[in-house]
Amino acid sequence: MKAEIMGQAAFITGAAGGIGRALALALASRGVQVTVLDLKTAMGKETVRLVEEQHATISYKPTSPSAIFIHCDVTKPDELAAAFARHHEVFGRLDIFINNAGIGGGEPFYDGADWRKVIDVNLVAVIEGTSKAIQAMKDQGGLILNVASASSIVPTPYLPVYSASKAGVAMFTRSIAHIGMGIRVKTICAEVQRNWLMEPIKGI
Ligand SMILES: NC(=O)c1ccc[n+]([C@@H]2O[C@H](COP(=O)([O-])OP(=O)(O)OC[C@H]3O[C@@H](n4cnc5c(N)ncnc54)[C@H](O)[C@@H]3O)[C@@H](O)[C@H]2O)c1
């Protein structure tokens, strides 16, 4: 039996498109309201519109907005803190937090590429976001979902820094799986979807 999540509030990083938007719409189809955080304003606002459309399809009429967009760089702790505050101001609760924002690149790491940025977005910001979500959930519980990758488990020769960052996400998540406070902390190790991850192997 599916858990009843209608009326809950979710917060998803990197939800302007791709997997983040798909997660936002899947939750919206079950009557969940969503904070859409991203750097891409136009696409983020489109996710908000699609969440509203999804709620209309299931005749769900929330008392607070169906969704809001927040422009934020997850690597900037002050911006992330302000985003959590804004989410709380609008929805008054945080039931589901999804650390989804992620980037590729940083290769070749031995040849001057900015590989630190990949670690900052994919791993450091995930730890920061998880810590803020725990603070928000510690009294009533909730779900934290950290999006890792098949690259967390299987070495990825053309994206070693990405692979290292995602391995960190998976092990960080597993290590706090029993943190208590009614908070479940999970990870998903997604297989390859068509996007920038494919760029380095185009033509192969
Ligand atoms: N697509 C795949 O094959 C695949 C496979 C495994 C895991 N993943 C992971 O899934 C997640 C989503 O990937 P996707 O395929 O949907 O990619 P995507 O590029 O469509 O989505 C990632 C989003 O994160 C946002 N983002 C990037 N840096 C940010 C920052 N500093 N602050 C805020 N937002 C930022 C981007 O603007 C983008 O909208 C990522 O963590 C990725 O590593 C993807």
From TrEMBL:
Source superkingdom: Eukaryota
GO terms of molecular function: oxidoreductase activity, acting on the CH-OH group of donors, NAD or NADP as acceptor
Keyword Membrane: no
Entry-linked PANTHER family: 15-HYDROXYPROSTAGLANDIN DEHYDROGENASE [NAD(+)]
PROSITE patterns in UniProt: ADH_SHORT
Keyword Transmembrane helix: no
SUPFAM superfamilies xref list: NAD(P)-binding Rossmann-fold domains (SSF51735)
Assigned keywords, A-Z: Oxidoreductase
Name under which the protein is recorded: Uncharacterized protein
Family: Belongs to the short-chain dehydrogenases/reductases (SDR) family.
Pfam families per the UniProt record, alphabetical: adh_short
Any GO CC annotation of this UniProt entry: cytoplasm
Organism encoding this protein: Ceratodon purpureus
